[in-house]
Amino acid sequence: MRALPVGDRALLIEVDSGQEAEALHAELLRRRAAGELAVEELVPAARTVLLDGLDAPSRLAERLTSWEVPPVPPRTEDVVEIPVRYDGPDLGDVAAHWGVDEAEVARIHAAAEFRVAFCGFAPGFGYLTGLPREVPRRATPRTAVPAGSVALAGPYTGVYPRSSPGGWQLIGTTDLVLWDPARVPAALLTPGTRVRFTPVAAP
Fold first, then answer.
1. How far apart are CA 61 and CA 177, in angstroms?
2. How much is the pTM?
């Protein structure tokens, strides 16, 4: 675990894996809720957690090295279910990479339980861990991926909240709104949220 100063009131904590970043983020949230940590913002990423709004970053950096960080605790909140039509243009490529047919790709994906590790790239886009098999990114990114596209890349699953460029493998489509500024919170998926994909038939 490495603590790097960011400005006068922030620290960027680097760890060695996504699992460690998730566990550290969960422990920081727990300590803040218990009144043991005074921090304004906690922002997880693939292998880092940013702590912003600290009164004494250097003192916290010294203490962090002695912390015992337990594994990510189980969440008790309800699972967010995302209905998906497994009709994506890259479904066949993913099936070939996994050595299965397209129906089996859908079965494997829908059988997994995912967890939002962190958010980024676009408002409402969550990087979901839990994919049983990894998938390479496309060799050539698309200039426009439709909103609602369910996609895979590396160890992650994601859902494009709006049309944007992207290089992930598209395996399906959902009509669920991932980002709505009129909703509180605007993002349906936030770090730590449990997610399942529910297959639905194409209209």
1. 39
2. 0.76
